Amino acid sequence: MTDLTTSPTTDPATAAGAGPAHDILLFDMFGVIARHQSEDGRARLAATAGVPDSLFWDAYWGSRQPYDRGDIAGPAYWRQVADALGADFGPARIARLIEADIASWSAVDDSMVALIEELAAAGRPIALLSNIPEELAAHYEERHTWLRHFRVRAFSCRIGHAKPEPGAYRWCLAALGTEPERVLFIDDRGDNITAAEASGVRGHLFTTPARLRDALRLSA
């Protein structure tokens, strides 16, 4: 989904700690603003599937990219997972798996949400690029008002490209209407950073909110 807003009312060059005025900050979501799956969430998923944890995850990730990209919907994805496991998931189990999957990805880092709010209040242009299936994207839109701050929200399920595919970065640049060197991409995965840099975008490998603040010259 694209959410193109008007220009910020505050000049980023005059905002305290805003850094270079031309920077557009392009954020990943999971592993940066939202947390990766919890151990409890992972255990619940495998238990809902009714298969050993040691077998479940290869099947789970094996079809994830097409699901994230929007090539297939949730029920079709879970049928592919079942096929890979040699199992049979009926409609009721698939519904429970979709629910458990959403729950496993639902936690956010409050300190990063606060940073997003701070950047938005300072007029800093920010955008979002996330590998995310439709059911999870809808969940976040329903529950997290801070998403409104992103002038472009590039959800992989709606743009037809998932990181680290080059098309994901090209789509964002076209939606932002800017040159790649004006964008700083923030992600916790090195392969996604490498792909972004190959498209001309600058990268920051996210480790902690404090280190990101240092990179952006923002006080804690």
UniProtKB/TrEMBL annotation:
Point out the coiled-coil segments of this chain: none
**Name assigned to this protein:** HAD family phosphatase
Q: What NCBIfam families would the database entry show?
A: HAD-SF-IA-v3
Organism superkingdom = Bacteria
Q: Which CDD domains match?
A: HAD_sEH-N_like
